[in-house]
Amino acid sequence: MSIQQPMGILAQSERPGFFDNEVLDEFTVPFGEWVAQMVFWINSNMDPILQAFKAPFSFLMWLIVDNRSFSILTVPWIFVVLFIALIATLSRNIKVGASVALALTLCGLLGPQHWDETAKTIGMIFVSVVLCALIGIPLGILSGRFDSVWNVIRPTLDAMQVVHSFVYMLPVVFFFGIGEVSATMVTMVFAIPPLIRLTNLGIRQVPEDVVEASRAFGAPELRVLTDVQLPLARPAIMTGLNQTLLLSISMLGIAALMGAGGLGLLVFRAINNLNTGLAASAGLALFLVAVVLDRISQREGDEDGQLISRIRRAWGARKNPEVLLENAPVAAAPVRKKAVVTLAPLTGGERTGLALGAVGGVIAVISAFLTWNSDAGWISGYARRSDENLVGMAFNGIDASGGSWYGFTVIALGLLILASAINTIVQPGRGPRFLSPETATIAGIGIFLSSLSFWLADPSYLIQTISQGPGPLVAAAGGLLATVGGTMATFAAPYAPNRPLPDKIAWSRLFTGAVVIAFVVIGGFSGWSFDERADVIITPEIQEEIERLKEEAGDDPALQAANAQRISNLANGARQEDVILDGFNGDGAGLGWPSIIAGLAGMLLIIPGAGLLGQSEEQRRWAWNVLVAGVGVGTALIGANWIATISRVADSNYFSGVGAFLVLVAGVLLVMSARSVLLEFNRRKVYSDTPAAPVVETDDVLRDEQELAGISS
Prior knowledge:
713 residues; mainly alpha; 67% helix; three-stranded antiparallel sheet; 3 domains; disordered C terminus; MetI-like fold
C-alpha cells in the first residue's frame, strides 16, 4: 500500500523559484476584480444618479434622431441638405455651401439606406459635439484661468487620451446598455480632450499686458474674460471644436460595435459579410460627411468679413448706427494723394469672343429641348429593360430616356457661358470671380466633349430599333462655338498674375498629365457597366438546359432532387459570369476612345501650360491652362454623365462600372493641375494720377483708404 504525499507538500515542492517568470503569477494584484466590484456596486446602488447622467444624452438623441414625429430622419432629405448648405453658406461662403449640398446628396445616392444612416450619423455627431462644447469649453476656461484646476484636469486628459476606448467602453455598456446613448458617451470621452486643451491654451496665450491693461481700466474679471480673453482665444477654441468634431467622426466604427446606427454600422456589416462594395460606398459616405462637417467648422483667415458676422454687427447696431463708424479705423494722418486704380477695359477681341460664346451658350441651351433620340433609350437602354423598345416615341435632352444628365449638363454650362459673357461685357473684372472669359471657355469645352460623347456612344446591343435626333450634334456645335469664342476672349483678355509665375518648367503638371493618360487608358479597359440581371446572364442555351432538366424531373420523380441541384448549379454558375462591358467592347457604348482622346488632348495642352515651350509669356501660359481645365471638365463629364444617367434609370442588378469613375478622376486631375495658375490671375489694374475714369477698385485695403478719405473730407 503506497503512501500519498500531502497536496500542500507537493505544491510547495513544485512552486517556481524567485528567478522563474512563473513566480509573478503567485502574487496577483486583483485590480480587475476591484474595478468589477466597483462597477457592480455602482450599478446596484446608484441607479438614480446614472439615470440623471443619462438623461441629457437620451433627450438629445431622441430630439435629434429618434423622435418619429419630427427629427432628422423624418424630415425630407432635400430640406436637410438645404438647411446644412445654408449653415455652410452663412458661416463660410456660397462655394462651401454648394459643395456641402452636392456631397450630402451624393451620400444618399450611394446605395439603399445610405441617406437614413447619413442623417443618423450627422445627428449623432451633432449631439456629441454639442455635449462636448457644453462641458469642454467651460472646463478649458477654468483650466486657463486657474492653475489649480489645470493641475487636476491635465492628468485626467492624459488618461483619456492614452487609455484605449475599448477599456472604458465596457463599463459604459454595463451601466447604460448598448445603443446610441452609450456610444455617444464613449465618443465624448474620446473627443473632448482637444477642446479642453486648446481652450486652455487659447486663454493662456492672450498677451498678459492686454489683460493687465483691461484690469487697470477697472474692468471686472467677468468683463476681462468675455471682452478680452475669449475673443482673442476664439481661433484656438474654434480649432478645438473642429478637432473634437473630427475625433467624433473617427469613433463611428466603435459606436457601431456598441449597437449604434449610422454609417459606421454599414461599414461594420460590410466587414462581417466581406462585402467590398458596401464597404466602399459606406466608406465614401463617411468620408464625405467628415469633409462636410470639417469645412463648415474650419476657419479660413479672418472671418470678420463673412456674411453672418456682418449681419450680427448690423443687428447689434440697429438702434445706434453711429457705433459702426466709431468702431471703424481712424486715419492717424491726413490722407495723402493716392493713385487712382481702374481695371483694364474690354478689348475688341474679348468683346467679339464673348459675343460668339454667348451665342454658343444659347444654342446649347436650346439643343437640350430638341430630340436627342427616338424609338429607344440611347444610354438608358443599357440599364432599363423598358427603354429597349419605345418605338414611335421621341425624347429630348433632359428626358430620362433621352439625353438625361447629358442634357442637364448642357443647360447648366450653357447658362454659365451666357452669364459669364454678359457679366464681363457689362462690368469687366467685377462681379463674381467665376463669371469671366476663362469660365466661358471651360464651360464651352465641357459642353462640346460631353454632348459629343453622347453622339459617339453606341446604343445597347439588345436594342433592335433606335435613331438619333439632332439634339446632341446641335449641342456639340454650340459648345464648339462657345469654345472658339471663349478662347478668343481668353487670349485677348488683359489678365496678369498677382505675383510672377516661377521661371521654371512645372514638372509636377507634366507628371499629372502622365497620370491622367494612365487613368483614361485603364478606365477604357475597365468595366463601364455590370449587368447581373437574370434574363441576361441566363443565356438561351442555359435556359434550354434548365427547361430540359425540369421536364426530365417531371417524367421521372426519382430525378427531381438531382435535377434540382443541377439547375441550381447552372444558375449559380451563370451569375458568376456577369455581362461586363468595357470602354472598347463592341457590345458597349465604346466611350473608352473618346476618353483617351480627351486625355491625350489634355496632356498636349499641359505641355505649353507647364512652360515647356517657354516661360516668357505668362498670360499665354494662363490661357493654355484655361484650355487644360476645360478639357479636364469635359473628360470628367464623359464619366460623370454616364454614371449619373445609368443611376437615374437602372434596373436592379445593373450598375455603372469603375471605368467611368476612373475617367471622372482623370478629368478632375486635369482641372486640379491647372487650378493654381488660374487662381493666380486677375484682370490687369491700370494706375493713373488723375481720376479720368470711374474707380473700379478690387483691392480691399485701397478701398478702405478711399472710404476713410471720404469720411475725412
